[in-house]
Amino acid sequence: MRKDGRSCDQGRPVQIIRHFTKYAQGSVLIKTGETAVLCTAMIDETVPSFMRGEERGWITAEYNMLPSSTKTRKKRDRNGKTDSRSVEIQRLIGRSLRSTLDLSKLGERTIKIDCDVLQADGGTRTASITGAFVALYDAIQWLLNKEIISENPINCFVASISVGLFKDVPILDLCYDEDSQAIVDMNVVMTDNNEFIEIQGTGEQRPFSQDELEKFLFLAKKGINSLIADQKSALGIK
Amino acid sequence: MRKDGRSCDQGRPVQIIRHFTKYAQGSVLIKTGETAVLCTAMIDETVPSFMRGEERGWITAEYNMLPSSTKTRKKRDRNGKTDSRSVEIQRLIGRSLRSTLDLSKLGERTIKIDCDVLQADGGTRTASITGAFVALYDAIQWLLNKEIISENPINCFVASISVGLFKDVPILDLCYDEDSQAIVDMNVVMTDNNEFIEIQGTGEQRPFSQDELEKFLFLAKKGINSLIADQKSALGIK
Amino acid sequence: MRKDGRSCDQGRPVQIIRHFTKYAQGSVLIKTGETAVLCTAMIDETVPSFMRGEERGWITAEYNMLPSSTKTRKKRDRNGKTDSRSVEIQRLIGRSLRSTLDLSKLGERTIKIDCDVLQADGGTRTASITGAFVALYDAIQWLLNKEIISENPINCFVASISVGLFKDVPILDLCYDEDSQAIVDMNVVMTDNNEFIEIQGTGEQRPFSQDELEKFLFLAKKGINSLIADQKSALGIK
Amino acid sequence: MRKDGRSCDQGRPVQIIRHFTKYAQGSVLIKTGETAVLCTAMIDETVPSFMRGEERGWITAEYNMLPSSTKTRKKRDRNGKTDSRSVEIQRLIGRSLRSTLDLSKLGERTIKIDCDVLQADGGTRTASITGAFVALYDAIQWLLNKEIISENPINCFVASISVGLFKDVPILDLCYDEDSQAIVDMNVVMTDNNEFIEIQGTGEQRPFSQDELEKFLFLAKKGINSLIADQKSALGIK
Amino acid sequence: MRKDGRSCDQGRPVQIIRHFTKYAQGSVLIKTGETAVLCTAMIDETVPSFMRGEERGWITAEYNMLPSSTKTRKKRDRNGKTDSRSVEIQRLIGRSLRSTLDLSKLGERTIKIDCDVLQADGGTRTASITGAFVALYDAIQWLLNKEIISENPINCFVASISVGLFKDVPILDLCYDEDSQAIVDMNVVMTDNNEFIEIQGTGEQRPFSQDELEKFLFLAKKGINSLIADQKSALGIK
Amino acid sequence: MRKDGRSCDQGRPVQIIRHFTKYAQGSVLIKTGETAVLCTAMIDETVPSFMRGEERGWITAEYNMLPSSTKTRKKRDRNGKTDSRSVEIQRLIGRSLRSTLDLSKLGERTIKIDCDVLQADGGTRTASITGAFVALYDAIQWLLNKEIISENPINCFVASISVGLFKDVPILDLCYDEDSQAIVDMNVVMTDNNEFIEIQGTGEQRPFSQDELEKFLFLAKKGINSLIADQKSALGIK
């Protein structure tokens, strides 16, 4: 039994609120337990200079924690040096979303994803991916509705969840207290076909075996399937 | 008659949601029409080095717009250079809140105010001050409830509103479309005793006369009184 | 009676030296009591990218204190972060000068104002505006003399002065010692028609009343009229 | 058959030169095919402030590519913003090395790892980990030989290698040309007990299945075992 | 005959105005022809951390050109990257002044030199050294007069001048037009004993011979002797 | 007799390894005693914007010390502020190399020199110049061989060495221990015609006389002639 009463293979309750703000073409507030992230997708009718003329689109992502999102106030990245953890996370978000799309169907434009963490209780990077996919979906629907693009570039749904080893037991969807004591920490990004987009696993306190890896991936699949059901439900897709 | 149906001396509807996030001692989401700002107050048990040993507290404020808060995505301040408009605004917020307190009753600690704009439709700086005061109030109640301080340092309530000259008519509480075409733009910070904490008026398109100034201040007083009533109502004070 | 023998409604002696350096089209050393600021205006035959094609000119301003201008040496802004007080001041200078001009008569060019404080004894921002207007006037005369522009874009003269409440008495043109103890501090920017370009008033130690505000503005008008007479005398205009 | 004649499950020839420079306590030039990285370990008798008094040591790592290490000259990180790919890599190197040690046996000191890429032909991050472990080993021997520490903090050997899917075939140890066209790219960090320290796999062009994952891990194990044999041989351990 | 009527071995007229501003213990405006530099010396009762406890003083120098000091406006160093030419010059100024002093007689304090160029017409670095020495002299007199130090740390006078090869003729004290076309450019820092503190000579368009070097040094000596006479005259020393 | 057994007029053994890395058109590892510098020359088919259309080429240089190149680890220049000593040195390297070329024969392209110090034991800037010239020579041969340019722009060979006064004796080619105690320190850049490209001499502990200067230059000539012989030998030129 876990601190918040969940079983080992149980994720936290998820809430996905679309159209949370009005300017972004996709704007989603995702809550996973006590973690809350505002994920927006804004369309920019240019591509980075190294891609001009290639007739393909691009997705960029930025991740940021608000100063008040953590127990001890987090300083803003205003000294010209983006926090290195944020850099790592936003690269992961960008890669994960790009790999779900046929970028040539997007045309020469960029969709800019922003994930701003309002409240952090573990799993902010995985919630960011899960929420940002919904915002991206809405932004692409906007392009289709306006007939700016004619074919849907989305190949599959994508969501992300954490798994880990806590007191030598594999568990799903770690909250902050669990995460900070985890022996192994793994983030998995998967599609609705149960295929992997990204696996990042780290032995924090000791290495882990192939056998343990298989248990983590089994839990992750269960969690991802549930999250993708939540995404589809929020989007009104059955 | 204004675009959104208001009369010239009518402010926008205000919503003040306390305890919006859980880590900050004060956390307020304020909505003024379509403008939404998350205002938090976090207590830090130190003071800046130049104040050590003076047995007084301090208030600092940071103001920031989320990238998705504006129609065209706003770049983050990650190049080491805080946007100059943000610098000006956060100095105003800090000064306004400090002047409502007896800092010697706060003890040697800092209350750090963060105003993060989620959605901007004019009046973000005035909404920040009005909302941040409520967050500050909650943080100070927290200190009093925990018996960390024994006397309430708050001398008065403070709120802020904009006034301006639009198509040669003085109006209250400008939305973005009005603000961007205003002939004169003025932000007023006042107390519940109808006294001024700060007046900042700018002739954007032409200078303004003493007579016009008096009309602006009359409107501002009306708006501030209404905002302070909203603050007290949110705090359950009659 | 004030420390330097002035009465409450008396400004400090002003000296305006034109052509202080040779490269800028306008170059003015202004001394107000012990405060000395070098104000220059240099013409740049481009406008910021967001204004291209609008057939209007622009004015930008930078404000800086030399390290030796203050009692304790002031560090240079070389760490990539302009001092926030400087940011606020240079925005004020730019706004104040722009509002005196018909920018469409200036053509697509920028006049760059630099205000470098050589010695600071209070009132550096107001002296900067008063001196920079004379430098701007000279730069515009240069454009007219060279027949680069055909119509004078200047609509009015502008000058600036501080007023404040010191030991509960309203006084004009505060020196540093007065400013650092002022109860209320206000900077006023006015035209030669006695209209306001900018009012910035702050209750430093306590809020101030409408009645006090009127006294401040009365003093400011007196001071501004005297400064504009000094500007016209330096420019040989009667 | 691969471009350089290797079979799919064959790594590149490895050369590990110890004592390449003289000041660092560990200094290793590692060459993996055409990739060359200088890995150094320098002892610093302090720990970061957040760890003081904990009686544990720390490992930090920095990764950098020399401007001439790539076909097109790479700009130096001198604008105050470390290249985001470098940030991600140096965090991986630090985590991987820390997890091989019992940090409490290191005492309150930091070992600073620097990985400077002299020539890049794919696999610079995995070569950095493999080489840096040898430099770390030498630095720890130095501490043991000087009797600064009494117990060896090293729990296991660690090495790293890339695997990937190239033209739909799983291959080991990708060179740059293979890496830039890989369908799936995975970096694996393992111990000499065949346990995982870190797995980072990315579907670059399409998601990958559980079955493919198993093939990648099988190849990785083979490669790691060979690299650890190379490390032991360079260190004169049988 | 040179453009401004000088002979080849003739320096420009020099004006040294002491006490130009009031806060710095030494404040000198030096004019060399059309070049004008404000050189100040401010006493700071600390030394850099690496020198604490050594019972020696230190001299630091900063060099900066005001934006309006050059024909085309020079951007301020506000992007966090000091102009590389300024870095080179301020290191030269610091070294030159330090070598004239017995730093142990200065006590554990720093004299901070600031050289701010108000108008640049060639020779700003040499004018900075010549003027800064006088400011340093005044600051040290101030320390002696206040009996903060008991022995004069100054071992010798120091001044600096440029020499160069212009249209194949060696000339003294180059103005900007000469400097920008010089074949060889050399800056010499010398004492009143005709000994060298620093020689920096560069073949800009071609290498130069030993014979030419001797001619340059002969001219430099002549110029330095005249400058030191100017310094002594300004200081009232015969 | 010197610490390492050399006589006063004897330089350290020199090793020049060409083609040390494979991407740069010129890539040289130069060792001078215990000092080792990787000097590369990479061709960039553009020139800085201020030179476009002038039909001349350009040479830029960057100098950097690896963190592990010094006894105490040297921090990387990642805070946005290049170490001021590095700035000074890279300007010297650039100037020295440019003055050996007829830049109009290079065409509108830039050769980018990088000098990365692998191990520092005094004389890194002079070794950088000596090694970088060989890398530049190779890059220019590459351009000639590919028939991208038709005429050789190199006018002369250039090398550099340090001289100094150590315990009142003039010595050649100072190692770190000698350099850190030198009374006078001088770096000389000369051609194979025994002409000067650059002389930079500094009286570190006391001024130096004309007589001493002549002794330094005599030693420098001897050292340079030997270095140029080493360069020619490495290049297979007799």
UniProtKB/TrEMBL annotation, chains A, B, C, D, E, F:
It comes from the Bacteria. InterPro entries: ExoRNase_PH_dom1 (IPR001247), ExoRNase_PH_dom2 (IPR015847), ExoRNase_PH_dom2_sf (IPR036345), PNPase/RNase_PH_dom_sf (IPR027408), Ribosomal_Su5_D2-typ_SF (IPR020568), RNase_PH (IPR050080), RNase_PH_bac-type (IPR002381), RNase_PH_CS (IPR018336). The keyword rRNA processing applies. Pfam families: RNase_PH, RNase_PH_C. The keyword Flavoprotein does not apply. Belongs to the RNase PH family. This is Ribonuclease PH.
